[in-house]
Amino acid sequence: MSIRTTGYAHIRLTVTDIKRSRAFYDMIFGFPVAYEWDDDADEQTKEAMSFLFGGVIYSFGEHLFGLRPAASGQDGFDENRVGLDHLSFAVADASELHLALDLLEAHDIPHSGIKDIGAGLILEFRDPDGIALELTSPPATS
């Protein structure tokens, strides 16, 4: 017997600097904010929102994506350690990858360039904490 799932509910990344990470994810993805921590909220609200751990949760489609400011500034991402290897976001087609490439270049964000891996196209880059991110599109059509 195995557990039957219908997808994932959310993903949350631990970051070293929530302001820096929010600026990056807002600029790159522009996801709408579902929940965010408010330092000026009353204690009852802060308690109700404690699941945010001082961070933010974005909404896109049926999914949630969060950032949690809990790692020390000394810590760093390493896809060769146990845990996350990379996070890949789907885009509609190759034209979206080219728009993303232009955005990354406009903001001097290092990237892999668009790669054809047979099953599709990918564009790899990293967030401010070095977390490996990828955009994936269906194969290019002729």
TrEMBL record:
RNA-binding found in the keyword field:
no
Domain (VOC) spans 7-138
- First and last residue of the signal peptide: none
Q: Which domain of life is it from?
A: Bacteria
UniProt cross-references to Pfam families, sorted A to Z: Glyoxalase (PF00903)
| Record's keyword terms, sorted | Metal-binding
GO MF entries = lactoylglutathione lyase activity; metal ion binding
Keyword Metal-binding on entry:
yes
What protein does this entry describe? VOC domain-containing protein
